[in-house]
Automatic annotation (TrEMBL):
Task performed by this protein: Catalyzes the isomerization of 5-dehydro-4-deoxy-D-glucuronate to 3-deoxy-D-glycero-2,5-hexodiulosonate.
Domain of life: Bacteria
One GO molecular-function entry: zinc ion binding
Binding locations of Zn(2+): H194, H196, E201, H243
Annotated pathway: Glycan metabolism; pectin degradation; 2-dehydro-3-deoxy-D-gluconate from pectin: step 4/5
Biological process per Gene Ontology, one example term: D-galacturonate catabolic process
Name of this chain's protein: 4-deoxy-L-threo-5-hexosulose-uronate ketol-isomerase
Biological classification of the source: Bacteria, Pseudomonadati, Bacteroidota, Saprospiria, Saprospirales
Classification via Pfam families: KduI
Natural source organism: Neolewinella xylanilytica
Cofactors, names only: Zn(2+)
The family this protein is said to belong to: Belongs to the KduI family.
InterPro entries xrefs: KduI, KduI/IolB_isomerase, KduI_N, RmlC-like_jellyroll, RmlC_Cupin_sf
Length: 276
């Protein structure tokens, strides 16, 4: 598991492109036959990918957690972004179709991932945060997620949010998780942007076609920088940073948050006039 230690806003403005990418961008998360995890020290959020092919993969404990097992003091959210698969939690198997989400409660000792067809593997995207109590392990389909329609064609930001783990959905200690899809011909996400000093957030971009990319914007609203992001790359957003993107084509992205509260609407909106 890689560690990312975090940066102050005044330090952030002095970083060059490579330094920004090294600190905030995570690549290579979805490698076939592997589990790859990144541990951000913002809210101790762990994110990554598990792509089982011929055999199953285990969510292994990590020495950095000083725990007896990975979920001893943590909760986990998993979204399947690939082919059909199964997640087995302490002996109970959950069938996972594309866009099914599984919440796994604190205290679960064994979590394994498998694909129905290794040639078209499940691509499990994982978000985990420290947890103070156990909530039930729960699977929801895309139909069970809360749908929120945002944006309009005039601003090229028409998009649909699917909220799975949130205040009025699957209950959790602090994890909030779902994904957003841009409708055809639309390219902007989360613009005008916002910050939420109470929560950090990670975006994983996916279904970015071919060589297309998303220019992801971050920083305080009046000191923005950008990262060029490809398919299955994630960006860590510190609580003080906007998180927004414009693609050269349309795309989807998973958002996951942890921190002080779970109120999705607790955002400090930036106006277009604030952005520099
Ligand atoms: O398209 C959007 O707008 C989003 O998906 C916003 C994220 O969900 C977010 O930033 C929540 O804080
Ligand atoms: Zn946000």
């Amino acid at each position: 598991m890689q560690s990312r230690y975090g940066v102050r806003p005044d330090h952030f403005t002095r970083m060059n492109t490579q330094e920004l990418r090294d600190e905030f961008l995570a690549s290579g998360l979805m490698q076939e036959g592997q589990v790859n995890l990144v541990h951000s020290h913002y809210d101790r959020f762990i994110f990554g990918g598990a792509v089982p092919t011929s055999g199953s993969l285990q969510l292994e404990n990590d020495a950095d957690l000083r725990a007896d097992f990975f979920l001893q003091r943590r909760e986990l959210g998993v979204l399947n972004l690939g082919g059909k698969g199964t997640i087995t939690v302490d002996g109970t198997a959950y069938e996972m179709n594309r866009f099914d989400c599984l919440y796994v409660g604190r205290g679960s000792k064994s979590v394994t991932f498998a694909s129905a067809d290794g040639g078209s593997p499940a691509r499990f995207y994982l978000n985990s945060a420290p947890a103070h109590k156990e909530y039930p392990t729960t699977r929801n389909t895309q139909d069970q997620a809360n749908r929120v329609d945002l944006g309009d064609d005039e601003h090229a930001n028409k998009r649909v949010l699917y909220q799975y783990i949130h205040e009025n959905g699957i209950p959790s200690c602090q994890l909030v998780m779902g994904f957003t899809e841009l409708l055809s011909g639309n390219i902007w996400n989360t613009f005008p942007p916002h910050t939420h000093e109470r929560r950090m957030e990670v975006y994983l971009y996916f279904d970015v076609p071919g060589d297309e990319l998303v220019m992801h914007f971050m920083g305080k609203p009046d000191e923005t920088r950008h990262l060029a992001v490809r398919n299955f790359e994630a960006v860590i957003s510190p609580p003080w940073s906007i998180h927004s993107g414009a693609g050269t084509a349309n795309y989807r992205f998973v958002w996951g948050m942890a921190g002080e509260n779970q109120a999705f609407s607790d955002m400090d909106a930036a106006t277009l006039g604030d952005i520099r």
